[in-house]
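Thread: quick sanity check before group meeting

JM: Hey all, I'm pulling together slides for Thursday and realized we never actually wrote out the predicted structure for the chain we discussed last week. Dropping the sequence here so it's in one place. If anyone has concerns about the input, flag it before I start.
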Amino acid sequence: MTDHTKSLAALALPAVLAATTLSGSTVLACMMPFAAIATIAALAMPARRGLAAVGLCWLGNQVLGFGLMGFPWDGPTFAAGLSLLASSLIAFAAAGVLARQGAGRGANAVLAFLAAFAAFEVSLFAYALPFGDTAMFTPGIVAQIALNDALWFGALWLGWQVLARIPALANGEHAA
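JM (edit): ok, ran it. Output follows.
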């Protein structure tokens, strides 16, 4: 495999995740699919690269939020942003446990997503108890966020499967 092919393989899926960050943050009014991104990163990438991808997607979301959408520059907003990072990394770890058990295919990938989503929401709720607003965790709101993340997960998983089957890219990725 050439260095050019290796660089394409290393950049293809993270580029898709970056595009997801942009669209999830701007088009969908910050309904960023953090759990979906964390799951795909855990399933499809080596641990360090997956962690970096999740962190960079979070950073992109924060840059768009504070720079483009006018988030207030205050302590509570910064803390809420950090709680999103921590929750995303926890979701990555939850999906990673299942990924190491071979959850890259079909129903097992869905289980990895469900574990990541549950870990993400529980850790955000734990932050919201002392510092935030638990009103954002009504069943209707959580269901809406779950649907958003599930749709993104499905699309990202399909995108990953397509990328893994492109000959120039498949050799450098963990194909399912």
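AS: nice. Residues 1-7, 172-176 have pLDDT under 50 and may be disordered. The longest helix spans residues 106-131.
JM: adding both to the slides.
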